[in-house]
Here is the input.
Amino acid sequence: MWTGYNEKMRWKFGLLAFLALALNLMGCVAREVSLPTIVPLPTDTPEVVLPPSATPLPVNTQAPTIVPSPTLTPTPEPITYTVTEKDDMFGVALRFGVSLDALKAANPTVIPNMMGVGTVLVIPITPTPASETPSPNAPTPTLDPFSPLRLAMEPVCLPNALGGAYCFAQLENISQSPVENPSVRFTLPGPEGGFLEMDGILLLNLLPPGQTIPALLYYPARIPDGASVKAQITDWLPMMPNDARYLQTELTSEPAAIAPSGGFADVRGSIAIPDGKPDYVWLLGVAYDADGQVIGVRRWEPDSLPASGPIPFAFRIYAIQGKISEVNLFAEAHTDIP
Here is the structure.
């Protein structure tokens, strides 16, 4: 009996010892082993969080601006003139309303006093644009009360065979001193309405006191009959008292031989220069009708200057329109001052 009892007790104590050992082992594991922290794997696409914006970004809804290609303006053909046997360079300049210097500059290979028949001259004409706003009446020029010059008569424009017109304004020097290079601005009707302004030139450089000399403008278009034409003196240069550039001239001439038709007049005579040697001598002939209006002009200069003695002259003046009633002559001699 005790033998069975002892067997049971040994089995019981062995089971308790096993349990104690297992508990000790579990305590050691719990004290020495820590579980790893689980870190979540990153996702393939990170989430981007934008900061809030108070103003939404603008959206471009405007259509692009299309810039047109520039339009090419054709260059006008140059105006030319073929010289005849009765032409000189000044007469051609006068016909087209350009200065003699401008005509010489446009034809540098042409010698003015040796032009042959058939010589083709380039005419440096630049058209002036008309004003954009048409006006029923031409503007009235403002008179300068301090000007030494005044208009002796109303300006006049005379049509010619080329489809243009010669416009004249007679400038009178009412002062006691000569003036140099006065200019006149003409106001004329534009070809497409409105008005345009063009500058006329005095036919000599010097306007002595008490004399009246016309300024000339060539207008390369037809002026309607009865159109209003105005002129205003715009500029001049005073002459210094001791200015010796212009020499004294003594003019001797025969009475002008006016044709019975009044269409032209022949003049002849001589110019004497008492003191000094000139570098140029100009003689201006002006033809007037019975009303005193300018209807023709001609500026003459000798082919060469003699070493001494008077300079003879002979030339013809044609009337642009109407009949010549009187001819006046004006001489000018200039010298270079070293």
User: Anything to note?
Assistant: The radius of gyration is 52 Å. The longest strand covers residues 179-189. Residues 2-32 form the longest helix (31 residues). The chain has three domains: 78-124, 137-239, 244-338.
